[in-house]
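Morning F.,

Quick status update on the modeling queue. The single chain you submitted on Monday has been processed. Sequence for confirmation:
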Amino acid sequence: MTSALNDIEPADIHLLTGMLDTMTDHVFLLRIEAGRYRLVYCNQAMERFMNQSDTLLCGLFLDDIVSDSVLYGKIAGNYQRAIAAGHVICYEESTEGFDSAPVTIFETSVSPLRGRDGSSVYICGISRDITARRDAETALQKTNEKLAQQLAENHRLHEKLHEEAMRDPLTNLFNRRYFLESLSRELNRAQREQHSVTLMMLDIDYFKSLNDEYGHAVGDQVLIEFSQRLLEGMRKADVVCRWGGEEFLIMMPGLSQEDAYKRMIQWREANSPMVFRVADQSVSIRFSSGLATAPENGASSDELINATDRALYLAKAAGRDQVQLFG
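Structure tokens below.
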């Protein structure tokens, strides 16, 4: 605890109080009397804030000034902490519970002092109004939270646009651009790891006639349903693409031409003819397909796609509704 207060010439007291009255911080001094805290001094900033004159405020006990028992308990508790510590302590407090005015937040430092008699104990304190700072920090936090939400939304929209850029808008299959990028990467990986990459190109037979007979709305629905069944029949590792119109292209990494052919035959047996119920109408389709495999039928993307297209041409030329291998 700080040592006894030094003697001050009475003629100089007005200089000390005058100096303290120039401060915007609240300065106060309380004396402990029988477990109560009597206010013996406060500067003009504190007087103005408390809306009291010096004659009414000074001399009162803290529990007379602060009638709210909860708030008084908090204030007195901090004074007890300072006395127990024997040195300055700092904390934040507010006027919540003091009056109906808007809450003010203070940053307060209090220190225990002993009087000249060595037995009197005082609490000397300085409180700085930090409400504006807290309001600014709260506003900044809200702004940062709002900015974080906006960034998250922008990220979500970016991801959505990125996803849409990879997808066919009608069938939601991957589009040609994404397929070509994926094929290029997969062929490079296959060359390093020495494994096969097989492509399969499918074409719905006589799709133009279907559109002419039932209308484009029905034709679009058939494309959507066909795409879904095609996806369900492929592996997760396979990349299924709407190549254009009624043509579809599937990349099957790590699958030899023989294994891909067996899988396609099994899928055809279960799905050809493929029957749909569209707009209260029963629509039946068949499809042709061609297979080609890297590196045997082509090492580059263009070579492999051309070989697969050639195999599809052979299937159509042979009467459609079948699968043909390149070569």
